[in-house]
Amino acid sequence: MIDSVKIKHLDRSIASKGARTLEVRVSSSVSFETPTRPISTTELTAKSFLGYRGELMAPLSALPVDLKTGSKFQKFLKNNGTVNDTRRKLQSMSDSTFMCPSFPILQMPTLNVSDDLPLKIAFDMQCSVEDMDYVCIPAVGPEAESYERIIIDWCESAEDSYGKGAVPQIRMDENPEAFSKKLGILCELSKTGLVMILNVIYANPDRNSVQFAELWRQRENMNAIVNCSEVPSKGKEFRKGVNIDLEEYLIQHGIDSITRKKHSVDSKYIFKRNMEDPPKGLDGIDRYDVAVHSASVRMSGDLWGSTKHPPLCGCSVCRGDNRERLIERFAYKDNRDLERSGMRYFSMIHDHQSDQSELGVMRSFIRSGEMVEYEKQLELKRNELLDSL
Q1: Do residues 188 and 247 both lie within one domain?
Q2: Mind listing the pLDDT tens digit for each residue in 63-84?
Q3: Each residue of 290-334: pLDDT tens digit?
Q4: In Å, how far are 14, 245, 253, 361 from 348, measured between CA atoms?
Q5: Which of 196, 230, 265 is the last residue of a domain?
Q6: Are residues 254 and 294 both part of a single domain?
Q7: Same domain, 241 and 299
Q8: Does some domain include residue 366?
Q9: Cis before residue 311, ω within 30 degrees of 0?
Q10: Domain check: are 189 and 331 in the same one?
């Protein structure tokens, strides 16, 4: 578990919107700085699928669990099998990330403070997972008056009875007044050490400018890691097939780490697809994007495949290979049948590692107070990339 969270550097330029670095101490000999990218179910699934033996280095693990798609939430409330299945998934993910602090992210509908049954089921299920350092408090609202009581109850109950911490959640699309009050409560609790991780649930910044500005305003008072979950993989489109990543914008508003949305796929669809004959050409593989984080953009697989000189990457999964070699390694099975999901899973592992590399560059600019210069360099790299396509 995390011992302490300390704000180290704060960019005070309103033009750069307030990126910050935190020093997070895990033990007397282990610490790390934010912003960072946690390892998530996305990368764990990709690593397992590809049989990838290399290490995915991350100081945190944030493990989204989809309890919202279709009838999942109703089954979670009424079916012991669904609760046990969710518990087993969390246990398996916890076992895979035992080397770093781990916390689940329950993607479920927003609850009322009086919803005792789902709150109790979620609490008991998570507390029974061995080696899971934190439990996730479902998002509740909009009753800000009862919010502090619920957060303190969960934090103290998890710690006193199970030796675990608790991670509150707050929605970015919540009513601005309620959002501000809840964020103020969490800031005060973070100063006591009761709250060390906060998860904010992503919402479109263009439609929720007041909430993002409030998060920016409170960044100096929040002594906790702020993770943003359910972040889509694409942002503004520069041209067809080229999109800007959202990481830069979110980090400059006081967010310290980012996880993507967990999508559940119906088991019937997986079974049906596995029974089909292998596709005959590359058109049959899953759609995927290739992240180019030195320029903070994503290229569609189609565009990447048609670019004469695609950017090379030295991460441990790419290993400096050219496009043809990467397709050879990940798009085909040993019997030369096409592996539909191979390139998509490859891109996930590449994305995580190149993200960590770019965030290391960003941390150095935040520490030196030169985020404006970082933005200028990033814009130059983007333009150079676009000119080369």
Answers
A1: yes
A2: 999 999 889 999 999 999 999 9
A3: 999 888 889 999 999 888 888 889 888 999 999 999 999 999 988
A4: 33, 14, 25, 20
A5: 265
A6: no
A7: no
A8: no
A9: no
A10: no
Which value, in Å, is the radius of gyration of the alpha carbons in the chain? Answer: 21
Report the amino acid identity of residue 26.
V
Which pair of tokens denotes residue 265? 């796929």
- Do 289 and 144 share a domain, yes or no? no
Q: How confident is the model at residue 141 (pLDDT cuts 50, 70, 90)?
A: confident
Identify any residues that bridge with 102 across adjacent strands, giving them in sequence order: 61
Sequence-distant (6+) residues with CB within 8 A of 88 are none
Tell me, what's the pLDDT at 219?
93
Rounded to 10°, the helix 144-162/176-191 angle is: 30
pTM reported for the whole predicted model:
0.92
**Cis peptide preceding 142, ω within 30 of 0:** yes
Band (pLDDT 50/70/90 cuts) for residue 266 is low
d(CA 196, CA 319): 36
Q: Which residues of 112-146 are buried (b: 16+ CB within 10 A; e: fewer)?
A: ebeeeebbebbbebbbebeebbbbbbbbbbbebee
